[in-house]
Each structure stands twice: as C-alpha cells, then as structure tokens.
Hints:
Blueprint: E1 2-5, H1 12-20, E2 24-28, E3 37-40, E4 46-50, E5 59-71, E6 77-86, H2 96-116
Parallel strand pairs: 1-2
Antiparallel strand pairs: 2-6, 3-4, 4-5, 5-6
Amino acid sequence: MLLLADAAFDGNEFLHAVHQSGARFLVRSGARRVPTSAEHLGDGSSIARIGYGVLRVLLPVRVIEATLTVTLVDGTVRTERWRLITNLLDPVKYPATELVDLYHRRWQAETAYLSNRPRCSTAVSCAPAASTALTRGSTPCSPPTRPWSAPATTP
Length: 155
C-alpha cells in the first residue's frame, strides 16, 4: 500500500507508524521541515533521517525537491516548490520524476475536488431560504481554504 498525503500528514510519529505498518508513503513536507541530507542520489534526490528528538530510532527517508508550474482552469499560472518525502528509498526502482508525477496527480485530484465542492461564505447560510436553522459559523459548507482552488467565475 502507498499513502499519498499532503503536508499536514508529515509528522514524525505518523510517518513512523505508517512505515512500521509496512506501508509506503509519499508525502509533501511542510515548509518548516528541512531534512539534512546524508547521501545525495543520482536522480537529484537525497537520503535523510527524520525524527531527531522524537523517535527512538531515526526513520530513513528520501527527499525529492521539485518545482512545478501549473495552469489552472481559470488561466491562473502557479509555480510551487515541493519537498516530497518518501520511504521508497531506491532511486532506480522508484525514479524521482515518477514520484513527482504521481504526487502531482494526487494534487490535481484534490484541487479538482476543492474547486467543485459547494462553497459558502461564513456570513451567510447554506440552507434553503425558508430555513433559519443555520447561522454564521455553523454552515455545512466551508469557505475556500486555498485561493487557487476557488472555481472560476463567469461574468
């Protein structure tokens, strides 16, 4: 099994538990995590260890740095720098370019989902006009959490 996850899931204990379960992971790292490379690999990735001060045994991971440029449906062009971490350590069996492509597909699925789900302002109710049961802060819809995932508006 391979776990594909966003930066909110890059905690040391969580990744250690995933690894201990026998599963593999490919996770975008949070901006604050900057693993120190212990070995540089031929495909541009590197081997590092995570869990200093947290785990009894450090977890070896492969770090892949990537810059992606995407054009969204509304024409917006975004360039992002990603740091992916994985326990797929073999660069021959798991080339960095393929892992970046796989993570990019995960990100596209998330972005498509977020841009198509119902959106509501926290200042208004998502309920039908006849209902007053839902008020500010209790709507079943959430405001956009990422400005680039908001659906394109038409004039």
